[in-house]
Amino acid sequence: MKTIDDVVIPAAGSKKSMESLTQGILSSQLLPLGNHPVIYYSIKDALDSGIKNIHLIVRDKNSDVEAYVRTQSFSNKINFLYQPQPLGITNALYQARDFISRDYFALVFPDTLNFGETPSLQQTLDFFRKVQANIFTYSPITRDELQFTSGTLRLEEQDAPLGKRITSFTFAKKGEAMQFDGEHKVSFIRVLSTNYFDYASRALSSIPVDDHLPFKELVKNEPTYSFPLKGRFFDTGIPDGYKRALEHFRE
């Protein structure tokens, strides 16, 4: 049975949408949320799920995110990787290609948080043991909750013996998603085979880079399942979503 030992957390990008809160000085991953900065929760979720190797992608060795993590007791469990230029998620993940120890790894977006009784990554790993394939996890949300996220996934799915298999997907930004009457889904953790890096290499050879293309190639060529996470979602990568998360911690 295949297992997952590696998680990749991309935290090198800068978000212009968050400058009203960061003042262009602080990384959005270090904005306070409860008793910890935002980045803490993704790392803690991975540790609580028993992950052996956490690859954290930051801008460079002077990153304030790296400086914070190095002060924490779990810093010895972190492998820091670097993406000096904000060249997108494909370029960021490609930095981890030589560090993945098994056939599959997990991708965790640190801006999207999900709080439930069971760690989000643990829920994902439990489902992976069942399907042994790529996974796109998501949180179903209401139309009223669209204002608190940057966009949603639209999945085309078919029933399969082990669950719902994705046949294609598109990402709809918030304005586009508002026009869609079907079920709204916010993207969370993804489990990817290491074939992702082959698709990423091809995508990086094109200008501009289509960051969705390697994921679409995986879905096209390999079994990929959707899985709904249990818990409450927060998209801290936009101001309204971050403020909503703050209110949650004040409750």
Characterize this entry briefly.
With 251 residues, the chain is of the alpha/beta class. It has helices spanning 19-22, 38-48, 64-69, 89-94, 120-131, 174-177, 196-204, 213-221, 239-250, and strands at residues 6-10, 32-33, 36-37, 53-58, 78-82, 104-107, 112-115, 134-141, 151-160, 163-173, 184-193, 224-228, 232-235.
Folded structure, characterized:
- By secondary structure, the chain is of the alpha/beta class.
- It has a single domain, classed as Spore Coat Polysaccharide Biosynthesis Protein SpsA, Chain A, CATH 3.90.550.
- It contains nine helices and 13 strands.
- The protein has a nine-stranded mixed β-sheet with strand order 5-4-1-6-11-8-12-10-9. The chain has a two-stranded antiparallel sheet with strand order 2-3. A two-stranded antiparallel sheet has the order 7-13.
- Helix 7 packs across helix 8.
- The termini are far apart.
- The mean pLDDT is 94.
